[in-house]
Structure formats: C-alpha cells, structure tokens
Amino acid sequence: MAEKKACSLPGDQASSNESRRDFLKQSSLLTAFAITPGVVVKAAESKWDEGIAASLEKMPLKLEINGVKQSLQVEPRVTLLDLLREQLALTGTKKGCDYGQCGACTVHVDGQRVLSCLTLAVMAEGKKVTTIEGLATGEQLHPMQAAFIKHDGFQCGYCTPGQIMSAVACIKEGHANSEAEIREFMSGNICRCGAYPNIVDAIMEVKQGGQQI
Amino acid sequence: MGKELFNPGEKDALDRVDGRQKVTGAAKYSAEYQLPNLAYGVLVSSSIAKGTIKSIDTKAAERAPGVVGVISHVNSIKVPGFADNEHPTEPPTGGRPLRAFYDNRVYFNGQPVAIVVADTLERAQYGASLVKVAYVKEQHTTDFNANTGKAVLPAQAKKNPKSSLNDYDRGQPDGYKTAPVKIEAEYHHPSEMHNPMELQSITAVWEADDKLTVYDKVQGTKPTQRAFATEWKIPVENVKVISKFVGGAFGNGLHNWPHETAAIIAAKQLKRPVKVAITREQMFTMVGYRPQTHQKIGIGATPDGKLVGITHESVGQTSTYEEFTESVLQQTRMMYTSPNLSTRYRLLPLDVSTPIWMRGPGEATGAFALESAMDELAHVLNIDPIEFRLKNYTEKDPDNNLPWSTKYLKECYQMGAERIGWNKRRMQPGTLKEGDWLVGYGMGVGTFGAHRGGATVRAKLHADGRLVMQCAVTDIGPGTGTAMVQIASTTLGIEPSQIVFELGHSDYPMFGNQGGSSTVNSVGSAVQAACNSLKQKLKDLASAKNASLTTADPKNISIKNGQLTITDNSLNVALADFFKQNNLQEMEVTEESKPGQEANKYSKYSFSVHFAEVHVHPKTGQVRVKKVVTGADAGTIISWKTAANQMIGGVTGGIGMALQEDAFMDHRFGRYVTKDFAEYHVPVHADVPHIDVFFVDKPDYIVDPIGTKGLGEIAIIGVAPAIANAIFNATGKRIRELPITADKLI
C-alpha cells in the first residue's frame, strides 16, 4: 500500500491519475512477475491488470454505522453519502444536491451533524456514523421522529431524514432556544414542499418536552 | 353531509399514513431500489445552445475502468416511436418532446447528448468526464427580454378557434381606456425552477425484449406507462411504472423527459438495469421550469371604484421544438365584474429547453400581474384594496355567464382580514414603522378551476375488517393516501389504522396525472364510490337471508372493530362470521367515478386569499415576511393536517417567487449562471414565518360527491402579489419585476 499513498496526492489531475493507474498496473504485474512469469502472460491476456489495479485502488475502511461495525473496501473518491446509498443500501440518507447546499444528506458522525455528500467515506475511518435508519430504538421512534409525524413536519418526505438528523443535533448543540434560533440553525436544510413552520413546531416540542435525545 | 361526513376537525385530523416510513428512512424513492446487476448512467450534456454535434470521442470513456457502454446518437438503438409524427407523451402540447440520442441536433445548452454507463456511480461519473464532443455552432437566441416583440399566437390557438388561448374580448376591446381613472403597467418574472428536493431519477429494467419496468419519478404512472408503450411500440400492459414515493415534483413530473428515455435505451442496449439520477445542475435544463413571462395590464375604473375595463397581455417563453402553453389570463377573465375585458396570449420560442407547469402554473403568473394592478388602482382611487375587490365581486362567472358551483370568497376576505389585523394597515404607504423597519400589509387573491377527472379504485374488504384499496395515482407530497384513508373511514366506519391505500403503480386501477389540484376530487370520489359499493353488497347479502333488511338504508351500514352493523334494522354481527355464513374469503369491488353532465351547468373554481405583513429596512432594502395569513374556499377539507400543510407550502413557494427565485442566464452561451442552490435561492427556514391557515370548509357537491374543490394550486396563486403589495404599502415602492430583491428597494 505504500506506493499507493505516495501517488494518491489530493488534487491530482486526470493525466496523473492515468499515470498512477499505469503505475499500479505495472507494479502489481511486477509483483506477479516475481511469483511466476506464466501468471503475467495470463494476466495480460485476461486484462487482469485492470482488475488488479481496480482492487488496489480501493482503500480499507473500518467504521461503525448505526451501531454495526463495518469493514469495507472503498475507492477514495466515494463519498460517505454514496457509500451509504449505493453500497450499503442505507437509502434513508438522501441526495438532494451533492454540493452541501441542501442538507438532505445530513448524518451524525461521532454525534456531530455532517453533510455526507461533502465527506469522503475514507474520512470517516474509525468513526461512529448514525443515519436516519439508526435513530429509532427498535420499534420505538426517536422523539424527534414522533414529533415530525405529530406536527406533519414534511410533505413529500425527501428532505425529512436530513431535517430530523439536523433537528436532533440542533437541540444537542443548544441552538433550539427559540423559534428564531431554530430557524437560523436549521436553515441549512431546505424543504421545497415548504413544511418549515411545522418542522419548527416539532423541534420546539421536543426541546420543551425535555426527553432524552 | 359535508363537514360532518368528512372532516373530523382540526384536533382529530389524521397523521399522515406514510409518516412512519418517511421519518425512518424506509420510504423508497425511484433511485433507491436494489436490483441485481444494476448499472449507473451519467448523462453528458451539450455545451452549446444551438447547432449540431460534429463528433463525439468516446474512446477514453469506453476504456475507463468499469464503463460498460457509452451511448449517443451515433450508436443508440432506434426507439421505434421516435419516427412517428404523433406526439408520444403527455401533456398535449404542440411540437414534440426532445428525442434522446435521436440525431445530432442541439436545441439548448445542457441537452443530454450521451450517456456513460458503468458498474459504479463514481466510475460512470469519471467516464462521463472523458467524453469529448465537438460541435458546429449556430447563432442561438435565448434572450427573452430582447425578443418579446417576436412572440406569436400559439399554434394550438391557431388550430383550434375554441381554444381559450385565442384573443378574447368582452365588451369593447381595450375598454379600460375610456375609464375616468386608469393605469397601465408592465410586469415581469424570470424563469423559475421546480427544484424538488429529490433529483429526477429513473431505474429502467427490461424484464424481456418487450417488457419494461421503470421505477420512475413521475406524477402519473398510467400516462407514463402509455408514453413508454407508445415510444417502444410494445403493449401497454407490458410496461410497469412504479412511483411509490415521489420526493416533490411541483409539476415537473407531468411530462416525460429525455433522461428517462436515455436510461431505457441504455438498459435495452446494454441488457442490464440502468439507473439515472440527474444532477442538481441538470435539474435546471432537463426537466422543465416555470417560463419567464412579460405581462402588460391596462385597468380602469370609475372614481367610486367600479371597474370599467381590463386589458391583460402576456408573453411567455417556450422552446423551439415543443410548444408549451399555460392559463395565465383566466383569472382576469372571471375574477372581477368588468364590462370590458381583453386578453392576448403570445409565446416566444427560444433556444432553450421546454417549460412545464410549475405549481399554480400560469394562474400564479397571471395573478401576480392582475392582483398587483388591482392594488395599484385601489391606491390611485384611495379605496381599501379589499373594499375595491368587493365593489367588483362577481356573483356569477362573467366569462361564461354561468352560476358558480360555490363561491365563498367574501368569507375568505373577512376571515383573513380579521386574522392578519388588516385594520392596522395604513392607506398611505410608508407611514407605519416598527423601530427602524417600515411595516406594510398586502393581500392577493388566487383562483383555480375545480377540476375532476375519471378515476377507478379497487377496494378489498377482509374478514378481519381490514380494507385495502388500490389506485394508480401518485402522491408527490400532498398526502393523497391520508385523504383517501379518511374518506374510506368516514364512509365505512372502519378505523383509519385498519385501512391501507396502495398507490404509485401502473398495475393499479386507472387514474391520470396528479396535477391541477384534481386528485382528491377525482380519486376521492372513486374511493367513496368503492366504499358505497361494498356497503351495497353487504346489504344485498344480508337482506338475502333476512328480508327485513331489504329496506335498510346503505347509509346506515358500518364496520367497526371487525363488527358489521346495520343500525336501522339492528343487525350486528362479526364481519368474519358474516363472511363465513356467505362463503366469502373477502369482498372486492372496483368502481369508476367520473363527473356527470350536471356539473357543466356551473362554473367551478377554488378560491384563496393571502395576507402578508412585511417589514422592510429602509437603508438596506432587506425584506422580512413577518406573518402570513392564508385561507381557502376549497370545498370540504378532508384531511386537515395535510391540507393546512399544503397551504403553508404554497405560501412558502410564493415567498420564493416574490423575493428570491431567479433562473439567470448568460446569453453569450445560452447557459444558466444559476445552477444550484448557492445561486438559485429558494426559501429556507429563516425566510418563512409562522403561517396562519384557515379554511371556509363548506362542501361543493356540484364539483364532486365528497364536496371538495382542490387546494394545491390556490395555495400559491396570489401569494407573490400579496407580498409585493405589502412591500408597496410599507415603502411606497411598486416593484413589478420579480424577484423583489434588496437592490430594487434602495
């Protein structure tokens, strides 16, 4: 893995990506050559070099998601959002813009609200990630989830997981002391259906209810 | 009937029936289905606005790891329906929708020209970055303001003399000019993007050579099914369209777009399921928008406030390949008594993508001009804007001389004025202050046709008292399932928790598009019909064994806690036992419901009134919407919580329209500068105050048997002018160009 890191500088342009890839292919083939020349020939014929390079491009990633320890291999360019949605089938976390502008992808990383679309999966190494799927305790909804239902804090439901994850963090951060403060500290989560007043009502109720969140 | 029947009241309103799925992340949207061998498609879009593709270099992309195919017009399989002249998809606009990868023509900047498909999303994204397209550029025209003079009467109007898009005159053309007091003004709003939070997505699977399944973000599963069957020339029943959850749409799911066909082509050509979720940037060019519109109004009245005439002209934008029209001028024709009335509707085709209805569509556009002009004239006349409207209140529809099915707009004025504290409003603008801030009050009226179409619902009553209903309708957010459960519960007596309403699948019974505020009117009526049919069947069975029940009124049949009761004849039996006695496992009915001829004798509209209190900072021009009161005469309110939420959402959309939303194009390239939420602003939490919702809640049984009139559109129609009028009242500055940003106020 040493040579991989040496070549995997941030900001590499396409051309250097290409050369890095060639390097990976060559080095893996060289390793294979050291074992037996026959393998190299066969590898070249079957385009194994691509396969080997592809597997070497992945990095090991250990993290905990919703209390479950995961040991994964991911490409370093994979975002935490796409890892959750496309590789782990945790589609409760939503993609709304991919630019960190809408908040639909909000998850908790070590208890902090984080935009998973702006977080490379490998940056979560060793961390604890909580998504909307991990918020309830078994069948028992989290108080914020229950409050969203009670106050109808959504319509289409697409921004809802992000709103709820943000709302929980908003209270924990101490930023839910008034309606105005909630509006300010929830403004990173867009709801195009426009259920904002109901979302604020839900957060106020949970805050005032004083339940363990 | 009415209130007693369907509205359990605000306090007992149902929670959203799919709420638990939505708050736990269990709700599956169209890009969230796990399928074996799924591949990812990423679209490459054009970087010129008009011309032809000279060449596409796809070699590097094809060689890139994980890429399984690159498809463009060069190598795309032929879509059989593309060769036809007929228009293959909804809605019935002129021209035809863009045909994905059909030929080398480029009609707008951002047009999909190739799709790169790979085994992972990242590999498809990287592959797409390697495709190099060379163009032969042609001179494009995208500047609306510079070309409004070239606008033409829509082809649809030319073809059909009865079309309401044709020139219209009541009384004397331009009769407003004869009025003692008159104003003339021009209004403009830019194109606005629907921008639902869910990106437009489709997962296409060819189950066999002539069998297609799509998980698609649409507002109608049946119209989409029909469109794709026509495109691919396969039997309609061979196409399955699944849209169980739709993450907002606001109209952009009323049309089928090129990314959908691109995914279907790729899936067929590469023989594996393909998912395409377009990017936020692509949402600005590939899936429609509210077209920018330039309007002129001339309006005149007598000194005591009786309207003499209104002339309202509108020029809207469309694409060069497809004619999109909307109903901008209808509110002007029917809202106020005016002996003289003229409307003119024109379209300007540009080298841009095709617009599509966006919430409250043309009516919201037209209401901005009309309701602003009414406020302007009221000010000149020195008459209170509500009083001015009451002086010109229509007791029948002046457009067609028909009586209203119901109209409780006066009640809306009165209730809204009380709730906002209209008496605090000063007639003289700029004279009310709170600290440094100028305070203003404004109001605007909205209306939208109370439409009802045919709908069919299947209902299955199980022996344990559970009811399962099905309809192809989608739910883009209004709470369709919740309203349907409420209607069934009220009709049959069954507890809401024992009722399931399944939707969003083209295999279910017929309904068209969820659009035009017609869903509850149409599908709700079919739910009621299906439930009544079950009652009739139960009664028939009961009276076959007990003749004394023959005269029982089906109205008095109910099922509660699994117990079947016919009250007037005192039958009370466990439903399970009743089914057993009649050798029934379950009871199923399928009922179609559609409007009758009687309704044509009336003019049918929903009405809304919006009141806004704004604070404007005189030095910075910052506008804060401090309070909004919004009310509707929408017939019976079925589901209070979701209905109120609709109104709140409409007001929020109206705040965006009034103060923020502006799709801005750089005409040197014909490309949007605003292409994400950093540049294209929509309301966020901090922009939206408490919104006070009220409903008149009186049934209209002319529109449909459940008494509803429709709500989704009127929630936004009239909001933008209410805010613009409030800003005038606060500052004395009349801004006729949306959005009203700070620079326009200082």
Core attributes:
heterodimer; A: 213 residues; alpha+beta; DNA polymerase, domain 1; 3 domains; 5-stranded mixed sheet; 9 helices; B: 746 residues; Aldehyde Oxidoreductase, domain 4; Aldehyde Oxidoreductase, domain 3; 7-stranded mixed sheet; 31 strands; disordered N terminus
Please tally the helical runs of chain B, counting DSSP H or I stretches of 4 or more residues. Answer: 16
| CA(first)-CA(last) distance of chain B | 54 Å
- The N- to C-terminal Cα distance of chain A equals 42 Å
The neighbouring-strand order within the major sheet of chain B is 3-6-1-13-10-11-12
CATH topology of the largest domain in chain B: Aldehyde Oxidoreductase, domain 4
Quaternary structure classification: heterodimer
What is the total tally of β strands of chain B?
31
**What's the overall geometry of chain A?**
elongated
Instruction: Please give the radius of gyration of chain B in angstroms.
Output: 27 Å
Overall outline of chain B = globular
Based on the structure given, which CATH architecture of the largest domain in chain B is correct? Answer: 2-Layer Sandwich
The CATH fourth-level homologous superfamily of the largest domain in chain A: [2Fe-2S]-binding domain
Structural class of chain B: alpha+beta
Question: What's the arrangement of strands in the largest beta sheet of chain A?
Answer: 2-1-5-3-4
Q: CATH H-level name of the largest domain in chain B... which superfamily?
A: Aldehyde oxidase/xanthine dehydrogenase, molybdopterin binding domain
Provide the β-strand percentage band of chain A: 5-15%
| Average pLDDT rating of chain B | 95
Helix content of chain A: 40-55%
**Major beta sheet of chain A, specifics?**
5 strands, mixed
| Overall strand count of chain A | 5
Helix content of chain B: 10-25%
